[in-house]
């Protein structure tokens, strides 16, 4: 954390917003396929469909098939590293068909960040405020490691067994860690309009005719001997609920990696944990209120605020010049955490819109 920080919010503080803070309907505003490190906006090329009968497709299949060969690959091909910076999201916001709707929000962030806030996990964020929007990403100055490559492999192997990409011929023995299909979900949280971006494992067949979040399917695995308990169920439900998914398909491998059973879980109603959603709304509103009052440095650049999220408290402090340099060095030019190219594109767009409005007024 920066040397100068302050406590912004405590769970015991009197709420400054009306509660309960309801989550509005989830609307898919855009999607993107990431293939060979290239972003394809409004593309379903990387999207996968769950097979018609997933249980027979996975039962008695071994999730460790091909693991020995996989472990011979270079580390960068084996590691599953989550995107922490919002660069792909900025690109999607500019290029999507519903670009203007996506930019008409109060907060833009990853689904995983809001999941962690609402489920009481600890994390450090970097945030900037630009043109009425709070942009939030995880602190990327700490190198990210995948603590269990085998576990990630088995999860992706499960996906290859029970899903398909109809327009692509795939080698079932090959596990691809880097082809992802990601959606941008717009919904309200209390009085805030929020854009949440997250990966979707697969979709139901009905998605083709009705591309809406209720047709998303999340995939999970759980050790067979522990199939009667779901210690991560609260997290599973929250992360699925935030994107609007309705179904979680779970496979139960034994100690050798062979699937011995499956289960369909309906995403549970969140009314019982409304207090977690309320806490998420309070956190976002407090950050919007704080950062909007002093968004720029004296030099006119966007500030970066380091936010420490704990289960019951939020602390915040503005990064100093040296800290900003260490965060942004070696990457694309930025103001705060926002790429300069994104700002320039928006400024050109706004200028053209203003010019068109003046012309329309003269007609």
TrEMBL record:
Compartment annotation: Nucleus
Pfam hit, one: RAI1
EC number(s) per entry: 3.6.1.-
Gene Ontology CC terms, in alphabetical order: cytosol; nucleus
A biological process from GO: nuclear-transcribed mRNA catabolic process
Keywords, comma-separated and alphabetical: Hydrolase, Metal-binding, Nuclease, Nucleotide-binding, Nucleus, RNA-binding
Catalytic activity: a 5'-end triphospho-ribonucleoside in mRNA + H2O = a 5'-end phospho-ribonucleoside in mRNA + diphosphate + H(+); a 5'-end (N(7)-methyl 5'-triphosphoguanosine)-ribonucleoside-ribonucleotide in mRNA + H2O = a (N(7)-methyl 5'-triphosphoguanosine)-nucleoside + a 5'-end phospho-ribonucleoside in mRNA + H(+); a 5'-end NAD(+)-phospho-ribonucleoside in mRNA + H2O = a 5'-end phospho-ribonucleoside in mRNA + NAD(+) + H(+)
Residue ranges occupied by any RAI1-like domain in the UniProt entry: 28-317
Enzyme type, top EC level: hydrolase
Keyword Glycoprotein: no
Keyword Metal-binding: yes
Cofactor(s) of this protein: a divalent metal cation
GO MF term (any one): mRNA 5'-diphosphatase activity
Transmembrane segments: none
InterPro entries: RAI1, RAI1-like_fam
Family classification: Belongs to the DXO/Dom3Z family.
Function: Decapping enzyme for NAD-capped RNAs: specifically hydrolyzes the nicotinamide adenine dinucleotide (NAD) cap from a subset of RNAs by removing the entire NAD moiety from the 5'-end of an NAD-capped RNA.
Protein name: Decapping nuclease
Organism from which the protein derives: Mycena citricolor
């Amino acid at each position: 954390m920066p040397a100068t920080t302050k406590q912004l919010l405590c769970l015991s503080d009197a709420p400054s917003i009306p509660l309960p803070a309801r989550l509005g309907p989830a609307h898919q505003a855009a999607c993107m396929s990431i293939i060979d490190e290239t972003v394809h906006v409004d593309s379903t090329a990387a999207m996968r469909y769950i097979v018609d009968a997933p249980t027979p497709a996975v039962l008695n299949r071994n999730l460790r098939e091909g693991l020995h060969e996989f472990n011979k690959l270079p580390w960068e091909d084996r590691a599953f590293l989550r995107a922490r910076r919002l660069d792909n999201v900025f690109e999607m916001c500019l290029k999507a068909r519903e670009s203007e709707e996506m930019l008409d929000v109060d907060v833009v962030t990853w689904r995983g960040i809001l999941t962690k806030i609402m489920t009481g996990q600890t994390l450090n964020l970097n945030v900037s405020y630009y043109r009425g929007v709070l942009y939030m990403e995880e602190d990327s100055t700490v190198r990210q490691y995948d603590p269990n490559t085998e576990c990630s492999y088995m999860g992706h192997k499960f996906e290859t067994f029970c899903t398909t990409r109809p327009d692509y011929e795939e080698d079932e023995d090959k596990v691809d860690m880097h082809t992802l299909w990601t959606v941008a979900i717009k919904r309200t949280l209390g009085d805030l309009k929020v854009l949440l971006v997250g990966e979707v494992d697969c979709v139901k067949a009905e998605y083709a005719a009705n591309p809406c979040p209720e047709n998303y399917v999340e995939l999970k695995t759980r050790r067979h001997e522990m199939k009667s308990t779901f210690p991560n169920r609260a997290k599973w439900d929250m992360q699925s609920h935030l994107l609007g998914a309705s179904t979680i398909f779970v496979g139960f491998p034994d100690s050798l990696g062979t699937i011995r059973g499956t289960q369909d879980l309906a995403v549970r109603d969140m009314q019982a944990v409304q207090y977690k959603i309320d806490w998420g709304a309070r956190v976002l509103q407090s950050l919007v209120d704080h950062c909007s009052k002093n968004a720029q440095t004296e030099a006119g650049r966007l500030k970066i605020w380091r936010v420490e999220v704990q289960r019951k408290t939020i602390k915040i402090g503005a990064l100093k010049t040296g800290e900003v340099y260490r965060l942004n060095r070696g990457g694309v030019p930025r103001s705060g955490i926002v790429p300069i190219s994104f700002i320039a594109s928006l400024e050109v767009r706004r200028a053209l819109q203003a010019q068109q409005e003046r012309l329309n007024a003269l007609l």
